[in-house]
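user: At home tonight, take the chain set out below, taking as long as you need, and be ready to discuss the fold:
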Amino acid sequence: MQDEILLRQWTAGHSQFSADLDRGIGKIRAWATGHPRSSQAIGSTYAATDRSPDRVAASAGATLLSGLAAVATTVTLFASVAILATPSSAHDSSLQPSTSITVGYELA
């Protein structure tokens, strides 16, 4: 019940919250950089991109390497968590009492 009320309040006030947050970040940015944010659209900034075959290949290569790095990082983190989560046999044997009996004399 409380979740439903919270979600309704969030949905009702989300647009105002986002606008206030954007305005606040804009004021901080204007103060930090010394100039206000431009309110005009981006325009043709993306229209002048270089689409030569060399540039496309370089972009594809960078994307591939980024993906491989992400996979390697994920596998490393998964293996680390798996190693830390499984009990070690060295720790198990040190916790159990020894069952061997030592006799203090030798038979000749």
